[in-house]
Amino acid sequence: DAMVIQNPRYQVTQFGKPVTLSCSQTLNHNVMYWYQQKSSQAPKLLFHYYDKDFNNEADTPDNFQSRRPNTSFCFLDIRSPGLGDAAMYLCATSRGRVYGYTFGSGTRLTVV
Amino acid sequence: SQQGEEDPQALSIQEGENATMNCSYKTSINNLQWYRQNSGRGLVHLILIRSNEREKHSGRLRVTLDTSKKSSSLLITASRAADTASYFCATDSTSGTYKYIFGTGTRLKVLA
Description:
The complex is a heterodimer. In chain A, the strands form 2 sheets. In chain A, strands 2, 4, 5, 6, 9, 10 and 11 form a 7-stranded mixed sheet that branches. Chain A has a 4-stranded antiparallel sheet with strand order 1-3-8-7, with no helix packed on it. Chain A has strands at 4-7, 10-13, 19-25, 31-37, 44-50, 53-56, 64-67, 73-78, 87-94, 102-103, 107-111.
């Protein structure tokens, strides 16, 4: 089945140790998104790509970076994770503005 | 901020009853979407409604949109225990980007 896959499902990292979360899709969608969701809160958009065109949200910390080497893959790099970065990270894809998102199952990041 | 606010924050009903959730937003939109999120999982797309549409149905779901009041509602009829989840609205903007901003969400609990 076509889908969005996030790995790993759970990630534990040490304070200040760089960590990379990955997302892959078999839908061939142009747009890929990374959202951060903390407990009982709304998903917060970090950035999105339209093809290789990168769009950063103004309030996304510099500590968060992203790469999209090809249509299928997108990575979220957290350069120096702090305790406040513990959250669920959700990857989503879309064909465009008038289409719904397809979400992955998320990666729950714990910072120790 | 573009973020929508949902009302109520939490809702508890008996199986078989109808559940109504409301979403208000602040800026003009092209489209509004509703999503469901089961605990600890990714979001699932339910319905997209365009700004020129007033009502849309999908199975037991009915979505209305009132752009003059900048509000939308999601009605789930004949609710089931499996409908227990958080429900989020998400809005785009008329500025032409591909991103959607999520509202604060309603936590629905359906009691068997």
